[in-house]
Design a protein that fits this description.
With 599 residues, this protein is of the alpha/beta class. It starts with 17 loop residues before the first helix and ends with a helix. The strands form three sheets. The chain has an eight-stranded mixed β-barrel, surrounded by six helices. A five-stranded mixed β-sheet has the order 2-3-1-6-7, with helices on both faces. Strands 4-5 form a two-stranded antiparallel ribbon. 53% of the residues lie in helices and 16% in strands. The structure holds ligand C2E and calcium ion (2 copies). One calcium ion binds next to loops.
């Protein structure tokens, strides 16, 4: 991909309007003209005005989930607008109205997944009205129900993006601390104008701070987040100068304007002070909370000469910090290049998905005792049109950012079943494992999707294994276990991937419905060199067997390791010594030749 000219801002920044974003993601959810017209018809036929639907929705949601926090009035107002979805047809004004009602509702402490639940309930409501107590559906009716469900999901995704983006630009008009946001906007302008007037001498710093919410251990609820942020602001006021300006922004963060500095070194110094001040844990209502923050650092005039430029650069920096390992990211032109690359990948992804550019590769797994091939792990590959290979671990991230995570999962689940069917057709009876993400597991529709795929390709469910990484399952072990139970009820197996490198407690392992444990290749790789690593692998094998799980060792790169593992009682092996991932079509010949050698 061609890198962008320096200084050019990527298209997919926080400043696209909701309507722009809707136009972009509706097709992703299959909401074309036809679906939208089906949508409008659905409620015309079903009757009921938006007020009625809103209050029905509210009643249903409250019965289904009594602990919807938040003020009933705000909830009612939001749902009433939400329920106008079929007629509103994604009109810009309606989207704005909805987003505003959502913001008000969120302030009253409601949970972030409410739009998704509302979407599902609305779709159910629509289909109930439509169906009444009939048993059959016409094609048009089916289309209407599908459109309704898709539209609901699309809205939920839009709102969650709007929330996640939490652009500082929006936040400025919307700070918790009434009015101060406007002051920051103005101050930034004033400070920059003063900087211009003073020539190159004056530097203006802007720091954007956000609470990290990605790690499950840190998933505070909205009220706790607010309390942490309040406490953080308190601390920061102590370390900042009188002339610095600090405002709370939407989205678990704050912005700090540092006017009239002598040099950029002072901005960096202030950034260090800010992060140091936040290092110690907070005590919220008598409970110790360890909060982790991300900080984006920019300064004028080097990074931008206009307030909006500076704000965008700061957002990009803080988003980079949130995504990566570093807690503080100083803006750099390279970030723009990367952001543009990511934006291009996002555009390319939908093309890839629709045009069969994602490929299925298989990596063999063998029984270490008999040496015969017993299974294969499905690993996806994506080569873009300009011939560049996207690292496979990055693909789910791109899809997720785009709101196309569910489409990717669908593709994966269907590909796994198709692969099984094709292998079986070729006379190769081996298992196939497919990697899913934690978010997939939290999707209540996963079991249904899997069932559809199994039935469609008529495969034996027992041949299919779902691999999940430990953090995916253990983030919310109760909910995770519930979905895993449903998957197992379909007859598929479950496997815990990359075991040993996460932070999770072994105790949880016992409570999960699992069949298999995969030892991460870092341990396997180090095994032949280090006694300690060999001990770890031995302990993991014992642990797994003690829990009635079978064990797969990943990263078997030489024969000696395979033998060591076999002697330690490890059941299966996977790794470059056995075979690298290959196109699925090459697998039957590989299996035949490998098994011939194995005898
Ligand atoms: P993973 O699930 O741990 O997959 C195993 C990775 O280890 C594969 O890399 C495989 O090629 C590599 N590997 C296998 N044997 C050896 C070995 O002996 N030595 C070394 N050094 N490496 C070995 P790959 O295909 O690049 O995939 C990387 C990661 O990308 C996967 O890690 C997984 O997290 C993600 N990924 C790949 N395909 C999918 C998919 O279909 N769905 C999801 N959600 N993630 C995927
Ligand atoms: Ca895996
Ligand atoms: Ca793995």
């Amino acid at each position: 991909m061609i890198p962008p000219a320096h200084g050019e801002l990527p298209g997919l920044t926080a400043h696209a309007t909701l309507a722009d974003v809707a136009a972009e993601i509706c097709p992703v959810y299959g909401l074309d003209e036809r679906a939208r017209s089906a949508l409008r018809t659905s409620f015309r036929l079903a009757g009921g005005d938006r007020r009625q639907r809103g209050s029905d929705l509210r009643d249903l949601l409250l019965t289904a989930d009594g602990d919807i926090a938040g003020d009933i009035e705000a909830l009612g107002a939001f749902l009433e607008i939400f329920a106008a979805l079929p007629e509103a047809d994604f009109a810009a004004e309606w989207l704005t109205e909805l987003a505003q009602a959502w913001k008000r509702l969120r302030r009253t402490g409601c949970t972030v997944d409410l739009p998704l639940r509302a979407a599902r309930t609305l779709a159910d409501l629509g289909s109930q009205r439509l169906l009444a107590d009939r048993e059959t559906l016409s094609a048009l009716e089916l289309e209407m129900i599908n459109a309704l469900a898709a539209a609901g999901m699309c809205i939920a995704e839009l709102l969650s993006r709007d929330t996640r983006r939490g652009s500082l630009a929006m936040a400025i008009d919307d700070v918790v601390d009434q009015g101060i946001g406007k002051v920051l906007g103005r101050q930034l302008e004033t400070a920059m104008a003063a900087g211009h007037a003073a020539g190159e001498a004056a530097t203006i710093g802007l720091l954007v701070l956000r609470l990290r919410l990605d790690s499950s251990a840190l998933s505070f609820d909205l009220v706790q987040r607010d309390a942490i942020l309040d406490a953080a602001v308190e601390r920061l006021r102590e370390v900042l100068r009188e002339s610095d300006l600090l405002v709370r922004t939407e989205l678990h963060g704050c912005a700090i304007l540092l006017p009239a500095l002598r040099s950029s070194a002072q901005v960096q110094l202030a950034a260090r002070k800010v992060m140091q001040a936040l290092e110690l844990p907070f005590v919220i209502n008598g409970v110790v909370a360890r909060a982790i923050f991300a900080l984006g650092v920019v300064w004028a005039p080097d990074h931008g000469r206009r307030p909006d430029e500076l704000i965008r650069c700061a957002e990009l920096a803080v988003e980079t910090a949130l995504r990566g390992e570093q807690s503080t990211v100083i803006f750099d032109q390279q970030l723009l290049v990367e952001a543009r690359y990511e934006a291009d990948l996002e555009k390319e992804f939908l093309f890839a998905l629709e045009n069969g550019q994602l490929a299925v590769h298989l990596q063999p797994q063998v029984d270490l005792k008999t040496r015969r091939c017993v299974g294969a792990e499905l690993l996806m590959r994506w080569r873009t049109r300009d011939g560049h290979d996207v690292p496979p671990w990055h693909i789910p991230e791109v899809a997720h950012r785009l709101g196309a995570g569910p489409q990717l999962t669908r593709w994966l689940v269907f590909s796994a079943c198709r692969t099984l069917a094709e292998l079986s057709e070729a006379g190769v009876d081996i298992d196939v494992s497919v990697n899913l993400m934690g978010r997939d597991l939290m999707d209540q529709e996963l079991p249904m999707l899997l069932e559809q795929a199994i039935n469609f390709w008529r495969v034996q469910p027992a041949r299919l294994t779902i691999e999940l990484i430990e953090s995916a399952v253990l983030g919310d072990p109760v909910a995770g276990a519930a979905v895993m139970d449903k998957l197992i009820a379909l007859g598929v197996s479950t496997s815990i991937d990359d075991f040993g490198i996460g932070y999770s407690s072994i105790l949880y392992l016992r409570q999960l419905p699992l069949h298999e444990l995969k030892i991460d290749r870092v341990f396997v790789d180090a095994m032949s060199r280090s006694r300690e690593d060999k001990e770890i692998v031995a302990a993991l094998i014992r642990l797994a067997h003690g829990l009635d799980l079978h064990v797969v060792a990943e990263g078997v790169e030489d024969e000696r390791t395979a033998e060591l593992l076999r002697d330690m009682g490890c059941d299966y092996g996977q790794g470059y010594w056995i075979g690298k991932a290959m196109p699925a079509s090459a697998m039957p010949a590989w299996v035949a030749s490998w098994n011939r050698q194995a005898g």
